[in-house]
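Two entries, shown back to back:
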Amino acid sequence: MEADIEALILTFVIGTVLWSFLITLYRKNRISTRHIIVLLALIGIILRIIFAAETPIGMNSDEPAHYNYISYISTNYSLPVFEIVEPETMEYEYYQPPVYYLLLTPIHWIANKAGVETNNIYLMLRAANILIWLLTFILSVKTFKRLGWFEKQQIPAFGSLAIISLLPHYISISSGINNSNLPILFITCVSYYLAHDKIRNRQWAIIGLLVGLTVLTKMSGGVVGIFVAAYIIYGYYINQQTLRDTVLASLTSGGIAIGLWSIRAARNIHYHNEAILVEMGSRLWENPPRMLSDTVILFLTELTDTFWASSGPVLQFRLSGIAIGGVLWTFAIIGHIDSIISQNELFSGKISQQWFISGVFMLIANLLAIFRMADQVGNVQGRFLFPSLLFVGIITAVGLREFGLQTKIMPIHFVGGMTLYAILFTVHRFTQSSVGIFF
């Protein structure tokens, strides 16, 4: 117990000193945008390697069930057929779409044929998930570069990157075997393609492919369709996109996405008489009746708590996400309300505005879907918000900026604060301390 406290105090002191050192370097113009990006990437990689190496096998969220899905495909050369089973069988993820599992199956198949032990196969698959996160981070950087935000909008750019790199719950998910990781990469790819003033028909085809792959990875990723639809509609009504270009964009992207999803839907109908498997999936959860007020409280508390600070098989290891993230979100909401009243323009440039507002619509759809799940099955987890993670970071940072925290060194405070928080969470997670101040 005393050793745990000492480790946390030492971590806090060292982290605070490094944070102050970063501020000093930034003020003296000795640290550039590129240095900050590299620092975020390195810290993100190191913390994920620690989580992947130190978390016992099967002790990430739903990890054994996700592993079983991959193992089934590798062994049987076919997709599993979902049936209502007891959770102990670890087959309850079989209702999930297959792209994530198909992507990782070759790793399992090669390792299994080579006689690699199961524990080591787990580690190899965890490493693949860290690579998926790294690609997501790189694409996020490229998106902000394309938008020109590192020059004009550093606070939302670095605030979002800090969350993508250092959010503890995302560190845990992206260092384990979990299909919540890959949709974020696909949605970030869509974000990158939409962050452009002239999108040609070939790009719309790629966007449609990415939307289809997202839905074929995880159904909750379907909110990306709202992102694309809002972008197209905004372009037509606000940015005077021609009707011809609007129709072509809609038919190309929508046709490819729906075409891909229809393959999965046809298989589901064949085996289950249900296209999306929402009803069958919901049977996995007990759903005692509750009042609307109870659903709202469950939605707000569990979403905030698990989004900002949770890890483990059933997210049982938590810091006080409500105390940490809840305060940040409260200040951010106040900032946004003030900006609406003052009619402040959050972003300059037609494309930045179109891109951001479309992302806000995706986030709203994401939140409504989570609330519906809270009401129907009583299950709320922070990772359900991950499809909109890029925009959660942006909106949080912009809200804090509008709240009055708009200073030259604010980007460094985001990076330094999230770094300190992520390292403290990691130390606390693997020392299993019970220090009261965190709860």
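entry 2 starts here
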Amino acid sequence: MATSNSSNYTLNRDEIIRLAYGDIGVGAEGEPLEAELIEIASKRLNLMLKAWSAHGLKLWKRKEKSITLVASQASYSLGQKSAGTATTDSANKLVDNSANFLIDNIAVGDIAYNITDGTSAAITAIDNTTTVSFASDLFPDGDEDYEISSADVSIPRPLEIIECNRVDSSNNESTMTGMTLNEFDSLSNQTTEGTPVNYFYDPTLGNGTFKIWPAPDTAAASEYTVKIIYHAPIEDMDDSTDDFDVPQEWLEPIMNGLS
């Protein structure tokens, strides 16, 4: 007997929603689901995934980010509103036909990063759900990867920081010590500058707040970066055809949980 030689089976948002409704006898005979039922299920689905994100470390959501230090700066905001790939070349604009910049709460003044070539610029206008504008042409090729953020560091707001290392210019790493808020606030001299050895993270609403002590002096900011290993949130399910940001083995529990 021949096998498929594939193991990439998946279901998108609305396919899971229809299966979940079928389990409770709604739409079980193939009749179409009303748009309102799909919308209600989508909201419940996203709420459930947010709750599940808070319980334990999801190994596939263990991510890494290198933070560039700024002399005398002890606090860095961490967050991201949107990410994707530009689908069309349009002068002075970012066009992503699969995005919804209104749902993502993109605002004038947010910074867009062209990940492909390393440039960035402030957003000057939100044209519609799929288009934002800039004062100059930030995406000249039309197929560059992008991120949009209002934070100092553009990453999805970490649920927690698992590990933090200081990395020197020779790529040698030294472990930094994590502290509680009380321990960090009890440090005798908050204005001390030097080589950072301690850190504290607060997953505040909106953007998270990452603090280091002591604040880097000019020499430390030039010599070191800080690498964090963090627990990223599960991505939202905004559109009907969105795939789930989870392994295949999670699909049935998600369907049963939604039912």
